Amino acid sequence: MSLDFSRKPELAPLAAVVRDLMLRHAHGIAPGRQTEDVDFAVMVRDWEAFAALRAALLASGDFAERPGAATHRLRHQATGLPLDIVPFGGIERADRTILWPPDQSTVFDCFGVSEAFAASQSVRMPDGVSLRVASIPALALLKVTAWQDRKHSTPGRDAGDLLLYLRHYMDCGNLDRAARDHGDLFAADDYDHEAAGARLLGRDIALLLDRQAIQHVLDILLPQADPHGQLLLAQQSGLDLEHARRLIEAVCNGLAEI
């Protein structure tokens, strides 16, 4: 199957499946939490385009509806793997949220999705399908949004993934680039390899965003780096609290430096 991006919704896999590709397969880093579902971001001009995509997936026979009212949740018939279709683009409101039809009672925060898509790369899969794959900075950005949205409803689901990116970013093919272009990361007498990588990740996330969006991310993360705060993100990460807090502080420093 080939996708004509000029006329059909543009697709990009997000979150766990790309996390596994980028960490385990590209860099030999164990992702920890097993992939439980597949999220696809889909750029659509309106809700009619989303409905048409959903109908086409169901009509193919490869996908089935999942129980519940949520129309974006399907299941792949052959593998049983849950599939979530995350629409964005023309359906977003000014505050970057969408209201799910028909009753618009469910609100979804799309912050970071369009930025992640813009920074994604096209990858051709073995069966000829072309997909746009999000980068690690984009995935980390999406995890910040996801954690902020569901930190109370599903604690621990997103914090562990976000801290995984912070801990291992330097080892995801970034060491030579950091040494060449970010020499200040290595200048401290108490050099911390993971914290330096988290700071670099903050800088790379900032490159995806405008000033207002950077501040939005900092507004979420800075309270989680406060040693006198509740440290909810650190608590949910599964790491030692001070270890996690220092990594969060490092990514905030990187974000603020751009």
TrEMBL record:
<protein>
    <recommendedName>
        <fullName>Nucleotidyltransferase</fullName>
    </recommendedName>
</protein>
<dbReference type="Pfam" id="PF08843">
    <property type="entry name" value="AbiEii"/>
</dbReference>
<dbReference type="InterPro" id="IPR014942">
    <property type="entry name" value="AbiEii"/>
</dbReference>
